[in-house]
Amino acid sequence: MRGVQREAGAPRLAPTSSTGSRSRAEARSAGGACFRRRLLALLLAVPGFFTAAPGLVVAPTALLLGTLSLVAPTPAAADVLVSNLGQTPDNDFGTSPHPTRRVPGQSPPVPVAWVSVISLDSANLAQQFTTGSNYQGYILNSVELEFSRIYANGRIAVVELWSSTNSNSPNAKLHTLTGPATQPAGTNVLTFTASANTMLSANTSYFVVFYRGNRQAGERATANAEAIVTASDNEDSGGLAGWSIANTLRYNYFGETQNGNPIWHNDANRAFQIRVNGSVPGATTGLTVTPGSGKLDLSWTAPSGTVTGYDVHYTSASKTGSSAVTDDAAATGSDASAAWVAVTRSGTTATQTISSLSNGTTYRVRVRAKNSNGNGAWVFGTAIPALPAGTVWQETMTPEAFTGGFGCKNKNECDEQISNNSFTVGGASYHFVELAGR
């Protein structure tokens, strides 16, 4: 797993409580700073308090006295898939005691504060979210997280998209997101961009996994950073229906593995504050229905995203009245006058010819895309099969070898041999019309 390993001898830094958010630009008052100094003095008075794990080196002063800076603007509501960045941050969580971890070698036992557990210098971190039910899935554009950083030259955060196990833990990396090359000091919302055409499946859980990146030239040995958390179980308004953010974050404390796999803990009872941005692939559009003699030629514009096929249906029944066939009625049987009839087709070509129709009859047609996640929305059209303009009758006649006599020499004789201006030769029916000027 990326993010589990650290550089040999690189110290780890414990986290701290949250230091502010977009909606609390004035939260860092002098009184708050004074309180943090008193709290710092109290914590430092406990021997070994900031040594939650062997080799852990802490610089609590820097974190507890962090500063606030401007944050990125909120993206347009149409681009937000799900967010909890607008929820109230938990300012006190970092200094609250961990429920089970204790400072090594202390008697009586001293609880370890959460600040020593879930910073970028202490653990690999993850936040789960679940997508909605759009059959085509979703296009991921970016993920935003709120970080509090002490130094601009600290090791930067690396953010990845991971799949989820059935037990709701990070499973495997899917994509690495591109973040800012430099990450400023203070409390900021940082944007991490996905590659083009990064798709999220419908009704699927994913993890935003983030951790301290490798040390680069000019960087400090530590990140001196933490991600902001909230105790709220709610999502912000403006997201898409069906999307959710898990109420509990996950963390893999450095070095904790089982059978070679990282152990992901879920005992924090807080969520990291994130915003997932993207878009919904477009539906089938641009349906064109061109009538012909006994047929309709259909064409349409394919939606973006993955399409494995199309459903094409037609009916001559009205959508109103006693024998109505509604737009959303199921396709059954082969009688187009009584129900929707499904065209037998395969492949993903965005065209279809519907044949063996009755000229002069109004037909309704509908088309929808589909893939392994389900079916898209229908797009509808209407047309009337007919002969080309100015044509009374048309047919392709194939000459056959003369095998006998057939014909008539006057109207009475022809009327006896030709019924309703038609005759049959070789199994094909032919019709006569009188052409003007002949």
Mean pLDDT: 79
The span between the termini is 86 Å
Count the beta strands. 27
Biggest sheet, open or closed, and with what strands and sense?
A: 6 strands, antiparallel
Strand content: 25-35%
Helix content: under 10%
Radius of gyration, in Å, reads 35 Å
**Low-pLDDT windows of residues:** 1-78
Q: Which structural class matches the secondary elements?
A: mainly beta
Notes on the structure:
The chain has 438 residues and is mostly beta strands. Helices cover 6% and strands 33% of the residues. The protein has helices at residues 30-44, 60-64, 411-417; strands at 80-83, 97-102, 111-113, 123-130, 138-149, 157-164, 170-176, 186-200, 205-212, 225-227, 229-230, 244-245, 250-253, 257-258, 261-262, 271-272, 274-279, 285-292, 295-301, 309-315, 341-342, 351-354, 363-371, 374-375, 379-383, 422-425, 428-431. Strands 4, 6, 7, 9, 12 and 13 form a six-stranded antiparallel sheet that branches. Strands 1, 5, 8, 10 and 17 form a five-stranded antiparallel sheet that branches. Strands 20, 21, 23, 24 and 25 form a five-stranded antiparallel sheet that branches. It starts with 29 loop residues before the first helix and ends in a 7-residue tail after the last strand.
